[in-house]
Each structure stands twice: as structure tokens, then as C-alpha cells.
Amino acid sequence: TGKGGHAAEPQECVDAAVVQAAVVNNLQTVVSRHFSPMDPVVLTIGEVSAGERWNVVPEKARLAGTTRYFKKEINAELPKVIDKIASDTAAAFGARAETENIVLCPPVINDEHMAQVVREASRKVIGEDAPVSRPGTMGGEDFAFFMDKVPGAVALLGIRNEACGAVYAQHSCHYTVDESALLGGAMLYAQTALDFNAGK
After folding, report:
1. Residue 124: what are its φ and ψ, rounded to 5°?
2. Of 81, 154, 82, which is closest to residue 117 (Cα–Cα)?
3. What is the rounded distance in angstroms from the CA atom of residue 117 to the CA atom of residue 188?
4. What SS3 state is found at 99?
5. Which of 6, 12, 115, 138 might form a disulfide with 68, Cβ 3.0–4.6 angstroms?
């Protein structure tokens, strides 16, 4: 929050849009300077809004974003660092910043044993070349709440098929799937449950 006013008299104002831009820039140091490079952390600002008219210096601006990490301890530190950077940056401009941290879900950490059960099940029902090891992803998934209670694993099912136009990334407005792949996914679920119950 700054001080709004006429665009012709910026000296009488505290431009919330300018403060907002500085906060976004300064938040980029969170990952590179506040946490070990050995601990992956992502901080993304996905929403930026300020002002209501082109010739008025905005009084208020709003940012929204997401953070991702693997170590759960990092979540205790992240909100403090973000709040300090936002508050101190705003204060340097004569503005004020408030932050709110909402934890939507914990990080997804696959249990090694369950991951192996899924790998073997995928070989049985999809094919020998089905299990593909990929680097970790920072994608969020509320299945993590279940994995906090019992060992589990999240597997990604390939649904790409150029023949039916299933070629776009998940968050594309053109996203579609090859629905025939969903049968393999259902079979994988069933085989994983059978193998787990059999103690494999």
C-alpha cells in the first residue's frame, strides 16, 4: 500500500506499482541467497495487479505466487524471509507491505519401496520400457497429505499422442489427453494394489 494520486504529480504520491516491481525483483534473491544451493527451492510470482486507471498513480498493488521445496523445514523459514523482503522493500519507498502464507499441500516425497512396487507393476501391465526415471519435479499434489500418513508414491502417466492432438503441456488452454492411455493407468493402480498386498 502506497499513496495514490494524479499521474501528473508523482512527487505527491507513493507509487504502489513501482514498489511492487521492486518487491518482485528483490524476492528473486530468496532462492539464490537465503537457502543452500543443495536444497531446491522455487519462488514464482504468478499474479501481478495494480491500479484502476491509466493516468492515476495506484495506491494499492497485489502480488500472488507460489513456493516449492522438498525439505519441509524450509516452509518454516520461507514466509519469514518473504515477509521481511516485502516489508523492508516497501518501507524503503515509504509504503507498507503485508504478506499472507497459505500452505496448500506439503511436498511430494515418494517412498522408495512404494516407488519400486509401482515400477514393477508398470512393467507387468504397460511394458518393460514403461518405468522411466525422471528428475524430481516441483509440481504440487494434494496426494502428499495421504503420504504424510502412509508410505506412497506418485507416478506420472504418459498421455501424449500426436494423432489425437495430445501434445500440449498441462497448463496450456489447448491441453488434452489420449484417453486410451487411461486404461493403462487404471491397470497400473490395480496391479500396484495386488503386488503390494502380496508383499512384493
Report:
1. -70, -45
2. 154
3. 10
4. coil
5. 138
Cα gap 183→120, rounded to integer Å: 17
Residue type, 91: A
Distance CA 48, CA 65 (A): 9
CB count in 10 Å sphere of residue 175:
13
Helices (H), ranges, the chain? 16-27, 29-34, 74-92, 112-125, 144-147, 181-197
Please return the burial class of 27, using the count of CB atoms within 10 Å of its CB with bins 0-12, 13-18 and 19+. buried
C-alpha distances in angstroms, 84 versus 78, 91, 100, 189? 10, 10, 12, 45
Encode pLDDT of 87-139 as tens digits: 999 999 999 999 999 989 989 999 999 999 999 999 999 999 888 888 888 88
Residues 50, 29: Cα–Cα separation, whole Å: 23
What are residue 62's DSSP bridge partners? 49
pTM of the complete model beyond 0.90: no
Look at the block and give the residue holding cell 500426436: 162
Q: How far apart are CA 200 and CA 194, in angstroms?
A: 9
Strands 5-6 and 41-50: unpaired
Give the largest Cα separation in the chain, rounded: 75
Segment holding 47, helix H or strand E: strand 41-50
